Amino acid sequence: MTVLSLPPLDLDAGGAPEDDSPLRSVSTAVSVLDCFADEAELGATRVAARLGIAKSTACRMLAALATGGLLERTGSGRYRLGLRLFEYGQLAVDRLMLRDVALPAMGELRELVRETIQLGVSVGTDVLYVERAEAAGMNVRFRSEHRRNPAHSSSAGRVLAAADPALITAILERGLQRYTPFTVVDPLRYRQILAITRDQGYATSREEFEPGWSSIAAPITLTRGGRPHPVAALSVVGPTSRVLGPRKPAVVQGVRRAAARISADLERARG
Q1: Among 79, 152, 230, 265, whose CB has the most other CB atoms within 10 angstroms?
Q2: Would you tell me the crossing angle of helices 83-96 and 248-270 to the nearest 10 degrees?
């Protein structure tokens, strides 16, 4: 993995660099990235206004961060968090031992339900699958373009959004894009589904991203402020007839138990 090297930028309005401009560039880069904690997509004008810097400086900083993969430019010309941040974030995930703790339960769940098991985390308004345990004999393998899916069209995204009002707002502001005839694109209906998800403790997605494929997910949680807070999602994905057909109760029970086990193991690992 290449380490991003930012050029020194003259951050004062007059354009005259100061002796500590490299350090100021790093500080500004961090501030720019912090802006995306509150908003999924931003343009240079908005970033400049929030940070009190010149728009030209914001433009150059956004472009530099995008070149390094920390941001990515959207079709509208705005920016959102990039996959390179996911790579850096993997260090934190590994230290949290999420993947190490989850893998045994994922393997056991795969053997139980005979379907593919996914471990996902939220990045912006998407879900990134940081680990996947493929079911034996699957005729569709995990492909790179499936590593990141829109949160609104996945069961994993729903269990993560159900307990996160800021994420719900970001998803709705981004817009509910239709991928199949079954994708939920009505904001009111989407909110109703999230309310159901909160009540029942799991979420489903029926052919909303790929025809013929559906999923069921449960949240993996850590206690924060005395309450469980979702930090990841465990999901079972497979052909609709197998996941949401007569076997659905068994799949729901299996994924919820596995997610609860991972949550408990994470709490113990955290000490």
Answers
A1: 152
A2: 70
How far is 195 from 203, CA to CA, in rounded Å?
10
Tokens 């197998």, located at residue = 242
pLDDT digits (tens, 9 = 90+) for 230-266: 989 999 999 999 999 999 999 999 999 999 999 999 8
Q: Where are the beta strands (DSSP E) in the chain?
A: 71-73, 79-81, 116-123, 126-133, 148-150, 203-206, 213-224, 227-239
| The CA-based dihedral angle spanning residues 103, 104, 110, 116, taken in that order and rounded to the nearest 10 degrees | 0
> In Å, what is the CA distance from 144 to each residue of 9, 217, 234, 243?
35, 21, 19, 23
Q: Which residues pair with 120 in a beta bridge?
A: 129, 233
196: tokens are: 């159901």
Amino acid 37 reads: A
Q: Name which of 55-69, 125-139, 235-249 the model is least confident about.
A: 125-139
Complete domains list, the chain, with CATH: 24-81 (1.10.10.10), 87-270 (3.30.450.40)
| The pair of three-digit structure tokens given for residue 33, joined into one six-digit string | 């990235």
- Computed on alpha carbons and rounded to an integer, the radius of gyration of the chain in Å comes to 20
DSSP secondary structure string for all residues of 140-165: S---GGGSEEEGGGSHHHHHHHTT-H
pTM above 0.85, yes or no: no
Bridge partners for 42 per DSSP: 79
Amino acid letter, residue 173: E
